[in-house]
Amino acid sequence: MTWFLYLVSVVLVVVGVVLVLYTDWMRESLKAVLFQKRFRFLSSIPLAFGILLIISAGWSEIFWLVFLLGVIALAKGLYLLFGSRVNIERALHWWLDKASNQLYRLSGVISLVLGMALLSWVR
Please, what is the end-to-end C-alpha distance for the chain in angstroms? Predict the structure, then answer.
């Protein structure tokens, strides 16, 4: 399962760099994908990542962090699957339309740091 941890860490680094450097492009790309109103279908992605992160937590030097990331991803997937459509659309509308570019860049920096930390903690 170390391959999965390497994959997740590289994806986090790439997403972080793209969020920091190409903020407007990323916002428009997310709008194109997320406004198709297929929340039930999209919930399978964080659900799968969450389960795989929980399983692969033992292959990391920092078990609790990978396990916590898996639980957060699992909770996100369950919320997208069973949550109220109105609340999901309201949260997406805020993130895609009202959130500032600085918030996008901050989330990119957090993703970049988290990805690099995870990359260095894989056994």
Answer: 10
The alpha-carbon radius of gyration of the chain (Å, integer) is: 15
Domain ranges of the chain: 2-121
45: nearest Cα among 16, 17, 81: 81
Query: If you ran DSSP here, which 8-state letter would residue 122 be given?
Result: B
Cα–Cα distances in angstroms (integers) from residue 54 to residues 50, 85, 123, in the given order = 6, 27, 15
Which amino acid, residue 93? H
- The answer to whether residue 99 scores a pLDDT higher than 80 is yes
Q: What is the pLDDT of residues 37-74, one digit of tens each?
A: 677 788 889 999 999 999 999 888 889 999 999 999 99
Query: Distance between CA atoms of 1 and 4, rounded to whole angstroms?
Result: 5
For 15-76, the DSSP string reads HHHHHHH-HHHHHHHHHHHHTT--HHHHTHHHHHHHHHHHHHGGGBSSHHHHHHHHHHHHHH
Q: What angle do CA 35, 43, 20 make, to 5 degrees?
A: 60
